[in-house]
Amino acid sequence: MKKILLVEDEPDLLEIFGYVLSDYEVIKASNGRDAIELFKEHKPDVVLMDVELPGIDGIEATRKILEYKPETKVIAITAFASRRGKDVLEAGAVEVLKKPFRMQELIETVKKYL
User: Fold this and answer.
1) Are 79 and 99 in contact (CB under 8 A)?
2) Helix crossing, 58-68 with 32-42: angle to 10°?
3) From CA 58, how far away is CA 77, in angstroms rounded?
4) Among 58, 53, 60, 55, which residue's Cα sits nearest to residue 75?
5) What backbone phi and psi angles, to 5 degrees, belong to 91?
6) What domains sit in the chain, N to C, each tagged with a CATH number?
7) How much is the pLDDT for 81?
8) What is the rounded (10 degree) CA torsion for 45, 5, 87, 9?
């Protein structure tokens, strides 16, 4: 079964996205520090990374994950795409999903990188 690391600091969204992606093994993190540690432990196939996170933000967490495993597909999810989208792409994300998005769009984007 393919693994997805889902990084989202909003508990309700973490649960909703996890449910929508229930065809996969979903590892959940609510901050950048946990995301980096869980990535190293579980080695997921795809990372869904919120950009605005407490402590280590999604941009820095993306950099750290890609330093560890450069071929990783990181998909950024953010309501701040116009302000932070370019930064997370420069950090190595393959795509930015702008919140709010349709759940079908989330599923299709994940499938594209698996």
Assistant:
1) yes
2) 20
3) 9
4) 58
5) -75, -15
6) 3-102 (3.40.50.2300)
7) 77
8) 170
Q: Are 66 and 39 in contact (CB under 8 A)?
A: no
For 52, counting Cβ atoms within 10 Å of its Cβ (0-12 exposed, 13-18 middle, 19+ buried), the class is middle
* pTM higher than the cut 0.85: yes
What's residue 80's pLDDT? 82
When pLDDT is averaged across residues 84-111 and rounded to a whole number, the result is 95
Over range 45-60, report the average pLDDT.
96
Q: Answer left, alpha or beta for residue 92, where phi above 0 means left and psi between -120 and 50 means alpha.
A: left
Contact indicator for 3, 42 with CB cutoff of 8 Å = yes
